[in-house]
Structure formats: C-alpha cells, structure tokens
Amino acid sequence: MAWIYLLLAGLTEIAWAVGLKYTHGWTRLWPSLITAGLIITSLLLLSHALKTLPVGTGYAVWTGIGAVGTAIIGIVFFDEPRTAMRLVCIGLILVGIVGLKATSGH
Asked: Which of 16, 22, 77, 83, by CA, is between 20 and 30 Å from 37?
C-alpha cells in the first residue's frame, strides 16, 4: 500500500508543480487555492508512504516522479525544449526511480 501512496503523492506533486504556473506568483485566488490543496495532499500521501518505506527511497522516488512527470508535461503542453540530452536526463531519472524501488526491500 505504501507504494500506491507514493505513486499518488508523486502524481499530485506533478499536478501542483504545473498548478504553480497558473497561480501567477500566488496572485490568482482559485489556482492558488487548488495548488495549495494539491501540495497538502501530496505531502499527506508522502507521509503515509514513509510510515513503512525508507525515507531516502520514498523522498527520492517522490521527487523523481514529480520531476519526470513535470518535465514531460512541459514538453508536451508548454512547448519546452525536447532535446536529446534533456530526454536522456529524464531517462536517467527514471532509471534511478526503478533502481531505488528494486533495491528498497519493500
């Protein structure tokens, strides 16, 4: 169950990271409230996952999911650069996530 919490925490991290773009520096009410709610939700889910997962593994996987997902959304929806080196770096983060999961013992 901890890995499910961690996956959901990572997905909500992606959502709040993208939501930050729409807050316009926390000057727009509704996008700011939604983003704040997503941040709280993500942290609560992460805290549930860390009840049983090692903190180093859980935190690294959470940030990795957020980083990869946010980078991909930036490429697909915000026309951010999709250079070969950038895609290789995203792939390396994915390899790290899989490696941490495989060696976590949970």
From this structure: 77
Tell me the two tokens of residue 89: 């770096």
Q: Which residues of the chain have pLDDT under 50?
A: none
Residue type, 79: D
- If 0-12 CB within 10 Å is exposed, 13-18 middle and 19+ buried, where does residue 36 land? middle
Verdict on whether the full-model pTM lies above 0.85: yes
Instruction: Say if CB 92 and CB 71 are below 8 A apart.
Output: no
Residue ranges of alpha helices (H) inside the chain are 2-23, 29-49, 55-77, 84-102
